[in-house]
Amino acid sequence: MNDDERLRLARRLTDALPAPEEIRDDWGLFIMDTVLPNGVWSRPGLSQRDRSMITIAALTACPGGSRTVSAARRSES
């Protein structure tokens, strides 16, 4: 995937997420590099529990993230 294709995919990801325009592209690329297959999320070394805790912490730090975490907890019950 070339840089233009990566940027287009990153923008598609951030279309669905709240992000200020000035960080939109970087945020999308960060998501691609961390969460998508072959990203940090799939690397060995952290348990699924630890990865989930990191994700919950990151979501909680984002505006509106606590609502996302609460919804995730309700869906697990």
Terminal Cα separation, in Å?
Answer: 39 Å
**Topology pattern, helix = H, strand = E:** HHHH
- Cα gyration radius (Å): 14 Å
Q: Give the strand tally.
A: 0
The parts where pLDDT drops under 50 for at least 5 residues are: none
Question: So how many helices?
Answer: 4
Oligomer: single chain
CA-based shape: flat
Number of domains: 2
- Class by alpha and beta content: mainly alpha
Look at the structure and give the mean pLDDT. 76
Helical content band: 55-70%
Beta-strand fraction estimate? under 5%
Report the major sheet: none
Q: Which structural traits does this protein have?
A:
mainly alpha; 77 residues; single chain
Question: How is the topology of this model organized?
Answer:
Layout lengths: L2 H13 L8 H11 L13 H14 L3 H12 L1
